[in-house]
Amino acid sequence: MNADITLPDPEDRKAVIDFAGSFNGYKHHGSLAACADAAEASRRETLEELRNELFWAYRVGNHRGDDAVVKVYVDLFPHFERLIGQTS
């Protein structure tokens, strides 16, 4: 699974937003509350934790009407690279 992930360029706003929305944290965690709790914990030990944190930033940004998800992605990018690099 990890080798199948292609990280978008942090400069490509549309690709970052598409990537963030391609993981459903609500479904993965079973509820909005569980998704939010996991995202806010910022454990960053697994790809699922990173994808959930990014998904949560995407959903919050949609609610607020901003692109904060892009900044969150830039912050998470080294963690994604680290975890994907461990599995390839």
Task: Outline the structure in words.
The protein has 88 residues and is mostly helical. It has one domain. 70% of the residues lie in helices and 0% in strands. It has 5 helices and no strands. The N and C termini lie close together (10 Å).
Indicate the low-confidence ranges by residue numbers.
none
In this structure, how is the largest beta sheet organized? Answer: none
Number of domains: 1
Q: Name the structural class.
A: mainly alpha
DSSP helix count? 5
Per DSSP, what share of the residues sits in E-state strands of 2 or more residues? under 5%
Label the overall shape: globular
Terminal Cα separation, in Å? 10 Å
Gyration radius over CA: 12 Å
SSE order, as H and E? HHHHH
Q: Estimate the helix proportion, in percent.
A: over 70%
Mean pLDDT: 93
How many DSSP E strands?
0
Layout of helices and strands:
Blueprint: H1 13-21, H2 25-29, H3 32-41, H4 47-64, H5 68-87
What's the short version?
This protein has 88 residues and is mainly α. It contains 5 helices and no strands.
Attribute tags:
mainly alpha; about 0% strand; globular; about 90 residues
